[in-house]
Every structure is written in structure tokens, then in C-alpha cells.
Design goal:
single chain, mainly alpha, elongated, 0% strand
Length: 214
Amino acid sequence: MPAKSKYQAQDVIDAAFQIVRTQGVEKCSARAIAGEMKSSTMPIYSCIKSMKELEEAIVKKAIDLLIQYQIQERTGISVLDMGIGYILFAKNEKHLFRMLFFTEAAQKDMDLSKRMRDYAISVSMDKLDKFSPLDELSYEQKMDILYKMWTFNHGLAVMLNNAIIEDLSEDQIIRILMDTGLYIMTGVRDRDEIYKQDVVRELFNSAGLNREHS
């Protein structure tokens, strides 16, 4: 009877994840994983059915870590904390963020990507529904706020991840998201009144835009 391997599938996944986390997904090869495990490549192939299975496990582990960032309480405003966590993940976990959003590793598994997106939308909407300052707004208005904030958060996350802008502290990130969130919420709530103003009408006319289709 052959000797039982001392390695399990989780050992391979953890080793591969550590490589991706510290060096990037492009550095994650069977040889590199074996080096991380201080073993030959044989346990990798005996523990893991395929490289696709390994890729999916790494992506899932990265998503789980992202969720941990987002559910950590920092301000006591849960919907704000989700955005802060997303940006801190991009700032602190540069290689994992890039793998999730800018490489083929995540894109190959569209179902996993869809589940991550659906999770973010459903959880964020649940938190917005429980955010008392927005009680007067409709579901459509809350979705408008969600998508606008999501667009801003992702843009800031990408810029921090790629050092396009100067590094920001956690306090600075909180302040930026707080200010931007207030601007967006106020804008969505008062949209109709704002668009009635002469100066706003002039801006639309100057840009050749039809206010009715904005």
C-alpha cells in the first residue's frame, strides 16, 4: 500500500493563495506552489483535480477575504463600512484585487463573478433600506445611489491599487467616502429641484443635452 501523502487539497490551495497574494497570479505555477509547500510537485497533482479547480478555489478564497474587509465595522454606518472595506482591500491586497477584477483567473468563472456581484448588490441594498436618512426615498432612488457610489468606490479603489493617486490613510478614505456619499444622496433626493434651476438648464443646453433623457 502506498504511503499516505501528508498534504491535503487545502494545503495546496493555501500555498497557491499565498503566492498570488504576495507575488501576483502570474507567478503562481506548480513549481512555485511546490516551493511554497517545500515539497515536490507530486502532491499538487494528487490533491487537486485540475488547475481550473485550483483557480476557482483561489478566487473564492480572495472573495471571502474581500467580504471580511467589507463586513468589518469601522464607522458604525454599515453601508459606508462596505465601501471603506472594498477600497482598503484594493489598497492592502493589491495582487488579489487585480486577480479578481483584471485577470482571466476570475473572468473564466463567470458564475462566481456573477455571484459576487449579486451578493454586493443585495447586501448593499439591504443596508440602504435600513439606513434611516434614506427612508423617504424610493427603491429606484436607492438603486441610483448604490450604482453611483459603486462607480466612485471602484474608481478610487483602482487608482489606489495602481498608485495613480497618492496613498490615502484609512481616515482620509472615510472622509472622502462620507463626503461623496452625502453629495450623491443629496443630489438623488433633490434631483428634480436641482434640474429646475436656470443654471442647470443652461449647462444642459450648452452641452447640447436633452434634460428629459438625462
